[in-house]
# Entry
Amino acid sequence: MPSTPAPTPPIIRLEDIQLKLASAGGEVNILRGIDLTVAAGETVGIVGPSGSGKSTLMMVIGGLERPSSGRVTIAGTDFARLDEDGLARFRRDRVGIVFQSFHLIGTMSALENVAVPLELAGRRDAFERARILLEAVGLGGRALHYPGQLSGGEQQRVALARAFAAEPALLLADEPTGNLDLATGRVVMALLFDLQARLGTTLVLITHDAGLAERCGRVVELADGRIVGDRRQTRPLQAAHG
# Structure
């Protein structure tokens, strides 16, 4: 009788995540007992009002912020076992991050910005891979331009190419259209979902825009540092509208 294959472990497992920060007015509870499991390849939109803990949760998932208590396991790695250098290497190899502000290096061309994480990972094909990704986001002809010579939408497309450069298992996007006009934001999000689908990357999208969240296969709602809603979409808008 053939053996049953073992279930694939989740790419994200958060267990009772608490985050408390000191302030002039006393201790502030940012996250209040978050439990979240995300399977490989899922697209998850995280929504909630300003101050609900969305961006902080993303920082915890990416290892950019350590929780006060609880356990963070990403792609089978317990973050408590990693020091800061270990977390940085893990992000370099396994996690792509796209922020609202593009975080490009102003003294480097678009090509160099995309190639940097590949070079740090020791990839000999860093610049070849960077050119392919810039072509994929429609910027092949702008590869040698510097961020200051690019529009906001073009800069975010460079940031997308950089985030996907190492083919990460997990992509975290924090309000990726927040600094863009509506039309440009739509173009950027179409590219993001296209790259995610092509590579099978798990996507966690932080957004205040319910319409963007609805393009994901699952929507998680935060309020006051807690998960107050978690629903799966039978037909995400990205599938309905492409």
